[in-house]
Each structure stands twice: as structure tokens, then as C-alpha cells.
Amino acid sequence: MIVKKYRSEVVSVENPLADIRTVTLRPLEKAYKYNPGQFLHLALDEYDPSRPWPESRCFSMQSSPDQDTIRITFAAKGKFTARMAAELVPGKEICVKLPYGDLFSSDHDKAKSVFVAGGTGITPFLSLFTSAAFAAYQEPRLYFGVRNAAHNLYAADLEKARGVNPAFRLTLLDEEKDGRLDILKILGENGPSAVYFISGPPVMIKNFKTSLAERGVPPENIRTDDWE
Amino acid sequence: MKREEIIKAVKAYHSAAFPAKAFNREKDTVRYAGRVFDENELAALVDSSLDFWLTEGRYSETFAEKLSDLLGIENVLLTNSGSSSNLLALSALTSKKLGKKRLVPGDEVITVAAGFPSTVTPILQNGLIPVFVDVELPTYNINIEALKKAVSPKTRAIFLAHTLGNPFNLDEVLKVVKEHDLWLIEDNCDALGSRYKGKYTGTFGHIATFSFYPAHHITTGEGGAVATNSEQLAQIIRSFRDWGRDCYCTGGENNTCGKRFSQQFGTLPLGYDHKYVYSEIGYNLKMTDMQAAIGSVQMDKLEAFGEKRRANFKRYQKIFSAWEKFFILTQPTPDADPSWFTYVLSVREDAPFTRNELVTFLNERRIETRNIFAGNILRQPAFVDKPCRVAGELTVTDFIMNNTFFLGTFPGMTEEMFSYVEDCVAEFLGRFAK
Q1: Chain B residues 96-125 within an 8 A CB cutoff of chain A
Q2: Which pLDDT belongs to residue B434?
Q3: H or E element at residue B187
Q4: For residue A174, what is the domain's CATH number?
Q5: B256–A100: do the CB atoms touch at under 8 Å?
Q6: A217 occurs within a structural domain
Q7: CB pairs below 8 Å between A and B: how many?
Q8: How far is B355 from chain A (nearest CA, A)?
Q9: Does the CB of B65 have a partner CB in chain A at under 8 Å?
Q10: Which of A168, A219, B5, B386 is most buried, judging by how many CB atoms fall within 10 Å of its CB?
Q11: Which of residues 238-257 of B touch A (CB under 8 A)?
Q12: CATH code at A19?
């Protein structure tokens, strides 16, 4: 899909937890076009088409491509995201470019799919779960680890996923009560022939990927949404 | 000096340097093709040069987007020529990333011999075997019955041009593609804007290629494009186009994947700079932003250009239908609406003159003609000893080599030019009329 630059307006900013914000954007000129699981680059500085693209950061589209608006979630941890927290307010005009990434675009077996998400790492999965394309997955299963119950911000989207695909099964882990996601247990429940999608903190992705590979899951069956 | 002032001056320059000129039948040439442009192409070209970005940039994005929107194809990759596009399209199918579907040396690719060499050369350059099938008159496209007979267990792909803008029989070709699980590359270099059953050519196959050489439906000088709806093929084609690299950042961009220094590729050290990881044996075949600037303006004229080409075809058909006893007149493929690249016609075997006698006469009167490219490519010096298979006889192909030529239908043709051609044709043919 062609990468396009979209002048966009911030429609809303939700701040459900101190460090987490969900931003909804709407396009000012042309409709957004992307596939589930893809991500965008967001720039805060004004974009002059005759000059190079300004400093930007990557964010997964959390919304379904079927929707007119895009939702992204970020944690204000670094300099750029701190600027985002301060500057992104309703009515603010920014520029995003998209789509990037091929998490779900490249060919994969949909017979048995296991989605493993830690925290806000669930966002690229939500764009698939809430789109019509999710209906094609036969036995989709999500293992979702959150810090505590307050961090489970996506109940509505996950409920919607059940509507799109009634075969969808969810295992929610409250890490303060239930402990962390255990990839070996997940592998034991699903076997090496399933396709594993992993998204979350970089260390989690790296460890889970290594564990699955060491236990015979073929590389093409391990798909990760990992950024630096 | 402000950019707006420069652009204004450029537009004024265009008016002075390229004034509209009446055709002078005593000294002007009736070209077979030519670029048609106005002040807007010149302004966009200069605007792009003032950015001095030079490589793929904002105008490339606009141009690719316009072509993608027109065709309804998700991925459009701009290249430096139609021939490069053909090379990329075919080379992409050899990628290991395609697993069992990839083409490997010795696999067969069905094509025709009556065409342009760069539809055939990528097949040879990739160690594959071209299988030549005869064409038919009056469409100059592949003979479907011969195509069906040509398929062998080694056949893996079909690579065909829509001859001179006339779509080949897509329904029948697609049936063969489906039945034998083949790849289909549409060489759409001569057919941008043509339709088959209401749908643009270049949107039916797995990959389509386009040319923007000055003779074509729109121009960027040198230039071309590859289009595909497959995200995987698009990624592979981009890699082949951009040195074979795995990274898909455009010029001047860094780390658009967000994992530039953290991936593992083969035995390279973990985190080796993604910008310099090569996953294909590639080329550098990108378009410059200045070319794209011209293309993005030309795209806005494509529909009008196409209508003019169709009207010009009709005008020629009117001229030559009066002499049908000497010529086989071309016809559109059933269900097709060609945006004609040229007006093609063949001198009948029993005509009292030869093709070469007629075209010599016309060229002496400054009316440009061209043959259908290579004629029978198997008879070209470079191809005589190349590995290939000929499926059946190439009787019509040889006929075309000896008897066929074309005249221009480009939008720069005027009624004065047609009138001049009509008079010259009458002068030549009049002597055989009785």
C-alpha cells in the first residue's frame, strides 16, 4: 500500500491512566488507508512538503481500517512522547504518514492463531480484532497481560472482537494477581504448529521469540511487532 | 527571489518558447509520437528542481498516488523506465520469499515474439525459458488456442503486452492462468487508459508494468511503474528496485520500520543496520522526483489524452477503410476499449506494393512510421541462439514482421496532419486503384 502523508486533526485525547493517553485523529483531506496491524509515523512539527519529513515516532493503529478515524495509544515516557502529551489537544493539526509494517499482511495460516500481548502492545491486535478481516481466523486466541485491573483499558474492543469472530477466546492476566505471561504454558496449550503473534515490551518480545524458536516453532510462525 | 515568481516566469517562458504552431505540409513532420505538455508540466518540473531533492520525493508520492487511485491498485512503484519495470516484475517472481511459487531457472514463461524486446529479455536474464506463441489478426494479440496448447508442466508464468494499446483477451488468458496456477504479468506499457469489460488494463494480473517514455500515453521523459495489489510482491519489487535492500525507507528517511538496529538477518551480527541488509540481488531503477513532477501533471490529462487517441484512431480508420482491399485493418479485441498507442495496419499479401515501398514513400514525405517493434524477435541477431521453445508455428508473427507498420495516434495530431496523410496515402495508392 502506498505510504501517504495525511494532514490530520486531533479529535479527542483520553487519559485513562496517569501515563497513558489515547488519541483519536481524523483526516483533513483524504481518507486514511491501511491494513490491520500496520503503524504510522506521527510528527509534531509542521510538515513542509518541499522539505524532509520532520522528527516523528511510530505508533500502531489501534482502530480498524473500516473506521474513518484513527486511534493510537502512547505512554509518555521519553522526550517526544512528553511533547505529545503536552501538545496533542483537540483541534490541533498534525501530520502523519502511513501505512507501515506487515504484521498481518504477509501470508500466514489462519487455522490456529495465538496472539500474545503485554500492556499497550495489544493495540495492533485490536485493529485486526475489530475489523471484518478477523472473521477469517478459525481459532484465534489472545493472551493479554496487564499490570493490574486498572490497566485493562480495552474491554469494549475485546467485546467487539467476540462479535466479529465468535470463536475468539481471551485469557486475561492481571500480573499483580496472576503473575506474568508464561510463554511455555501458552506453547503447551497451543502447540508448535500455531502461528504466534507477539506484541509488547521489547524484552518480552525477545524472550518469547527465543523461547518459541528453541522449542521448535518455525520462524515463519513467529510474528512480532517489535520496535526499538 | 520567491519561488512563486520563478514559477510565474517559467510559465511565461513556456508561452514564448512553445507557441502553438499551425502544421505546414511543405516542411513539417507528422510524427508517430510526441510529448504533449503545457506550462503546468514545465512549472512542476522547475518547482521540483527548486526543492533540489532530486531522488524519490514529494512529487513521486503524488504521482504514484494518482496512478494508484486511477487503477484502484494498492501498490505503485515508480521506476526509471517501462523496460526496467518489466525486469523488476519478472525478477520479483524469482524471489525466495515466494517459496514454492518462485520461478527458478529452467521454468517456462509464455509470451509472444511479435513485440518489444524488453518483454522477453527479463525472461532470459533470469535464466528462464521464453515460450513463443503466435498472435492473431486483426488484434495483433496472442492466439488463445495456441496459448492453451503451449502450456507444459514447466510453464509457470505468462508475460504479455497489450499490443499497441489493444487489450489481449483477458477472460481467456485468466482462465489459463487459473487452470494451471500461473503468474500473470501484464505489460501495460503501451496501454495506460485502455479498458477491458470496463476495467483498466494493468489491473487484471498479479503484476502490471507501465512506461512513461515520450511516445507513451503520458510521459516523464524516461520513466515507468510497476503496480500490484499484493503487499508481498510490492515489498519484493521495491527491494529489487532499490539495490536489493531489505529496508523500505525512501531516500532521506531513516528507521521508518522502527527496528533498524535490532533485527537478525542470517549470519549477520544481531542489529546490523537494516539500511544495509540485502535480501535480493537487486538494481537501482528508481525514478527521480523531477520526472515524477512531470508525471503528476500528465496524470491529470490522461483521460483527455485517451479520448484524443481514440478519436485519432477513428480518423485513421476512416482514411484506410477506403483502401481496405490493400490492407488488413486492426480491430479492438471484443469487449475492449483501447486507448490506442498507435494506428497499426498490415499490407495484404496480394497487394500490388510492399509494406516497405509504402513506408518509404510516406517517410520521404515526412510522415513517420514504425514497424511493430522487433517483428519476429526470434529472427533478431541478439536472440537467434538464445534458449527458448516455440509452441506451434509463428506464421502470423512472420507476416507482421513483413507486412505491418504503424502511424501515430498521439494527442498532438491535428486535422491538418490527418488531411496531409490522407492526401499522401491517396497519392501512393491512387496508382493501384484501377
Answers
A1: none
A2: 67
A3: strand B183-187
A4: 3.40.50.80
A5: yes
A6: yes
A7: 53
A8: 46
A9: yes
A10: A168
A11: 250, 252-253, 255-257
A12: 2.40.30.10
Q: Is 1.10.10.10 the CATH classification of the domain at B43-105+147-157+172-299?
A: no
Distance from CA of A204 to the nearest CA of B (A): 14
* Averaged pLDDT for residues A38-61: 92
A77–chain B nearest CA distance, Å: 17
**Pick from B75, B76, B257: CB nearest A100:** B257
* Sequence-distant contacts of B394-399: CB under 8 A, at least 24 apart: B394/B113, B394/B114, B394/B132, B394/B134, B395/B134, B396/B114, B396/B134, B396/B135, B396/B136, B396/B137, B396/B143, B397/B112, B397/B113, B397/B114, B397/B132, B397/B134, B397/B135, B399/B137, B399/B346, B399/B349
Residue A213 lies inside a defined structural domain of this protein: yes
Task: Read off the pTM.
Answer: 0.92
What is the percentage of chain B residues whose pLDDT exceeds 90?
95
Shared domain for A214 and A121, answered yes or no, is yes
Taking CA–CA distances from A106, the nearest residue in chain B reads: B232
List the beta bridge partners of residue A223: A197
Q: Rounded to the nearest 5°, which phi and psi values hold at A14?
A: -105, 145
Sheet with B336-337, strands from edge to edge, namely B199-200, B195-196, B336-337
Whether residue A226 and residue B259 make contact (CB cut-off 8 A), yes or no, is: yes
Answer yes or no: do A124 and A220 share one domain.
Answer: yes
Q: Which residue type is seen at A107?
A: D
CA angle in degrees (0–180, nearest 5) for A151-A156-A161: 115
CB spacing of A50 vs B256 below 8 angstroms? no
E-strand spans in B47-116?
A: 75-79, 108-112
Q: Residue B301 to residues B36, B243, B306, B335: CA-CA distances in angstroms?
A: 10, 33, 9, 24
CA dist., res. B218 & res. B189, Å (int): 10
Q: Which residue has the higher pLDDT, B302 or B249?
A: B302
Residue A171: give the domain boundaries: 113-224
H helices present in B322-384, as ranges: 355-364
Give how many domains chain A has, as a whole number: 2
The residue of chain A with its CA nearest to that of B264 is A206
Catalytic residue from among B162, B216, B217, B274: B216
Chain A hits for B76, CB-CB cut-off 8 Å, are: 2
Whether the ω angle into residue B138 lies within 30 degrees of 0, i.e. cis, is yes
**Under a CB-based contact definition with an 8 Å cutoff, are residues A39 and A124 in contact?**
yes
Candidates B232, B255, B262; nearest CB to A106: B232
B425, three cell numbers: 496515402
Q: What is the mean pLDDT of residues B214-227?
A: 97
Q: Which of B50, B75, B258 sits opposite A228 (nearest CB)?
A: B258
Known catalytic residue at B14: no
Chain A: give the shortest CA distance to residue B187, in Å: 21
Percent of chain B with pLDDT over 70: 100
- Alpha helices by DSSP H, listed for B153-287, are 170-180, 231-241
Go through chain A and tell me how many residues it has.
228
The pLDDT of residue A223: 93
The rounded distance, in Å, linking the Cα atoms of B206 and B227 is: 9
Q: ipTM of this predicted complex? A: 0.82
